[in-house]
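Quick check before the chapter quiz. The format below is the same one you will see on the exam, so make sure you can read both the input and the output lines.
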Amino acid sequence: MMNFDPMWDVRFAASDYAYGTEPNDFLKAKVKQLKGKRVLSLAEGEGRNAVYLAMQGFEVTAVDASIKGIEKARLLAEAMNVRVRFIQADLAEFELGTEQWDSIVSIFAPFAKPVRAQLHQRVVKALKPNGVFLTEAYSPEQIQFGTGGGSDVETMLSATQLAEELPGLDWTHLEQLERPVLEGQYHTGLAAVVQGIGVKP
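Here is the expected output.
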């Protein structure tokens, strides 16, 4: 089930960074809640979050389907003098492994529900016991804001959906809220988001 939209290669081919080079605010605020050393970043795009995590001392593997995104991410890692393992792969099909990761991060990953729900099941399986899943995504109310995330409500999710799609995690943080999201030219203002931190028992 291929999920990759070639639009991403077009977007990431531009010389500037579509979503900037700074990490996501929620990730930055909660990074100390991540566990262990081995972190997997899903739908990493141009590398801003993976590079930030590597700068904090994590051993980071980052996956994205866009070859252009991966190329930009490697340049950013080089510029910041950190090592990140980048993998170009479609997350609809990529095998995350079993109890392999101390933490998994997913920031604004734009998947429709069928792909996302399957991916979330693989996330739970792939976390080690006591492992942490940290995510921020647009909630359905974001359609009214139009400040990022596209126009397909199917790619957005509520706190209830998030908990349902990741059975087996204990949520230490699960909240829907409105906040300014200012990340490059495509995330540009007040937004409706869902934030979650789940721990695998």
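If your answer matched, good. The chain has a mean pLDDT of 95.
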